[in-house]
């Protein structure tokens, strides 16, 4: 490990807010072992640890983008708390919860996803797109995420013209709405 | 369900591609059509969701890059055996540490405790010996105390085991008291040779040794005789034993030794029958105590009408006195051969009409306290 300047808590928070890749990289590497240890001790694999760690990291990132968000504890505690809750949820889902969680860190109470009703959650969208299947998934992702034009999409997917591709896209959109339930 | 055309328009509206004219038209439609407005909102939400999803996906791919970088940096591959050992260590290190420290503490504390106990044992042993000595001393002193108490008890009983009052019925030294006052001196019954003494605490301090010559357990009467050699006789008695039955309501009084001094109490004959309607007794309303046993009951003339035998435990001021009639019967029972001198009862009364204090002054010389040693 190359010796780097030790960053303060505020510098990390600022780094995330400003999308500083280097700072986020460092932060990521600092806290992963803690989460890995936690998940391993509580009946989880490394892959599962990685999944919940990244989810927690994204939650932290997204929350920090919101100027109203107040981080009332250390980043470490926040990540641990979110991971703890996510892992508990995971265990419940798999019916593997043994009634006790081995803890290694202080943790705070994480509020149940507050914005779920008003916004489409990251996991929710991913799940819906998986359900949607091909070719809808690719069409919608190409259009809304890759921001390709309908002509490009028609060409890529082998539609005779953009209008046909558009018709298909609207069908897919309607189905997606149904899956998400809006 | 929206038509494709409608959806396209919503999309174009949200993307800001509508011309000014179209926009005006659409906005007007939007304000009138609630369903359309709802639809627009849903699409807006979807697009936001996509944006967020895109951002998250981007973020996630970045995090994956970090992760791979990290995995590459750590020299040990995640799936290797070493790693799992490391994992095992990570997982159980705290437990192992706790177990080890508990074991260590247990061993150390056992060693220390044993050591401490050894040193204690020596101290303890001497302490036990000391305690044993102290205990012995205590035992001895308790025994001493016991003996002292016993001795005191004996002394106390020597002073006066029981007591009562007796009165003279003959100038030759015959007296009457309750059998229960002197019963313990009856050698034939108890096999004990306690001595009997009568004392007078009045102006003439008399003290005579006596013996019981007859006892009637049923009537609770004992006849005593002064056996002292220096006894010379009482002279002529100033009272007699009344032959007539006392009247109900007749004023009576008694002189007795409930304590070491003579006590006068008065009352009336309240019933011609005694306890449980016993016809041999009177019921008299005289307050009596233990020492009253055997004391004579006088009528206003100063003649004896009975002998106090018992009192009613349950009601105050109720005593029972054996009638003189019964006394005569008992005196007749005494075999003349057992007596050296026959019992000659007094025949005349000198106290009738005399005031009570004068009567008592005369009478008290013939009343004695019985002391049983």
Automatic annotation (TrEMBL), chain A:
Pfam families in UniProt: Sigma70_r2 (PF04542)
GO biological process: DNA-templated transcription initiation
Record-annotated RNA polymerase sigma-70 region domain positions: 27-95
GO MF entries: sigma factor activity
Protein origin, superkingdom: Bacteria
Keywords noted in UniProt: Sigma factor, Transcription, Transcription regulation
InterPro entries (UniProt xref): RNA_pol_sigma-70-like, RNA_pol_sigma-70_dom, RNA_pol_sigma70_r2, RNA_pol_sigma_r2, RNA_pol_sigma_r3/r4-like, WH-like_DNA-bd_sf
Record's keyword annotation contains Transcription regulation: yes
Family listed: Belongs to the sigma-70 factor family. ECF subfamily.
Name the record gives this protein: RNA polymerase sigma factor, sigma-70 family
TrEMBL record, chain B:
Molecular function GO labels: serine-type endopeptidase activity
Protein name in UniProt: Trypsin-like peptidase domain-containing protein
One of the protein's GO biological processes: proteolysis
Pfam short name (any one): Trypsin_2
Organism whose genome encodes this protein: Thermoflexibacter ruber
Coiled coil: 128-162
PANTHER family given in the database record: PROTEASE DO-LIKE 5, CHLOROPLASTIC, SERINE ENDOPROTEASE DEGS
Domain of life of the native organism: Bacteria
Keyword terms of this UniProt record: Coiled coil, Membrane, Transmembrane, Transmembrane helix
The UniProt record lists the keyword Coiled coil: yes
InterPro entries the UniProt entry points to: Peptidase_S1_PA, Peptidase_S1_PA_chymotrypsin, Peptidase_S1C
Membrane spanning residue stretches: 92-114
């Amino acid at each position: 490990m190359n010796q780097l300047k030790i960053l303060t808590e505020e510098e990390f928070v600022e780094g995330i807010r400003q999308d500083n890749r280097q700072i986020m990289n460092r932060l990521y590497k600092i806290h992963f072992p803690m989460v890995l240890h936690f998940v391993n001790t509580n009946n989880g694999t490394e892959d599962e640890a990685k999944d919940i760690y990244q989810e927690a990291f994204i939650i932290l990132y997204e929350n920090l983008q919101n100027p109203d968000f107040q981080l009332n504890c250390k980043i470490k505690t926040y990540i641990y708390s979110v991971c703890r809750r996510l892992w508990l949820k995971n265990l419940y889902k798999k019916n593997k919860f043994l009634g006790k969680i081995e803890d290694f860190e202080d943790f705070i109470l994480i509020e149940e996803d507050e914005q779920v009703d008003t916004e489409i959650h990251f996991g929710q969208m991913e799940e819906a797109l998986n359900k949607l299947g091909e070719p809808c998934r690719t069409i919608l992702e190409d259009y809304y995420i890759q921001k390709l034009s309908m002509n490009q999409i028609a060409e890529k997917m082998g539609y005779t013209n953009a209008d046909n591709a558009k018709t298909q896209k609207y069908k897919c959109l309607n189905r997606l709405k149904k899956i998400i339930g809006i | 369900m929206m038509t494709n055309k409608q959806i396209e328009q919503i999309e174009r509206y949200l993307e800001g591609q509508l011309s000014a004219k179209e926009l005006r038209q659409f906005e007007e439609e939007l304000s009138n059509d609630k369903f359309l407005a709802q639809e627009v909102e849903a699409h807006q939400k979807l697009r936001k969701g996509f944006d967020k999803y895109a951002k998250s996906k981007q973020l996630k791919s970045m995090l994956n890059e970090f992760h791979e970088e990290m995995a590459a940096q750590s020299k040990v591959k995640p799936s290797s055996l070493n790693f799992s050992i490391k994992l095992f260590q990570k997982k159980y290190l705290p437990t192992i540490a706790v177990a080890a420290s508990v074991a260590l503490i247990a061993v150390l504390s056992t060693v220390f405790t044993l050591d401490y106990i050894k040193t204690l044992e020596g101290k303890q042993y001497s302490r036990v010996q000391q305690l044993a000595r102290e205990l012995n001393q205590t035992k001895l002193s308790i025994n001493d105390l016991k003996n002292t108490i016993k001795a005191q008890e004996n002394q106390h009983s020597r002073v006066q085991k029981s007591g009562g009052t007796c009165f003279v019925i003959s100038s030759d030294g015959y007296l009457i008291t309750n059998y229960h006052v002197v019963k313990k001196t009856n050698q034939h019954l108890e096999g004990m040779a306690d001595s009997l003494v009568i004392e007078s605490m009045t102006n003439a301090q008399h003290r005579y040794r006596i013996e019981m010559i007859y006892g009637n357990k049923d009537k609770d009467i004992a006849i005593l005789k002064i056996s002292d050699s220096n006894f010379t006789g009482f002279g002529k008695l100033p009272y007699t034993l009344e032959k007539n039955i006392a009247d109900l309501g007749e004023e009576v009084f008694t002189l007795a030794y409930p304590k070491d001094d003579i006590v006068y109490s008065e009352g009336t004959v309240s019933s011609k029958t005694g306890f449980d309607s016993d016809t041999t007794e009177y019921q008299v309303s005289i307050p009596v105590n233990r020492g009253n046993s055997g004391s004579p009951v006088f009528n206003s003339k100063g003649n004896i009408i009975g002998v106090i035998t018992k009192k009613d435990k349950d009601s105050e001021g109720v005593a029972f006195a054996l009638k003189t009639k019964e006394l005569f019967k008992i005196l007749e029972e005494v075999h003349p051969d057992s007596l050296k001198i026959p019992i000659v009862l007094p025949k005349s009364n000198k106290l009738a009409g005399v005031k009570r204090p004068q009567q008592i002054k005369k009478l008290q010389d013939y009343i004695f306290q019985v002391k049983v040693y």
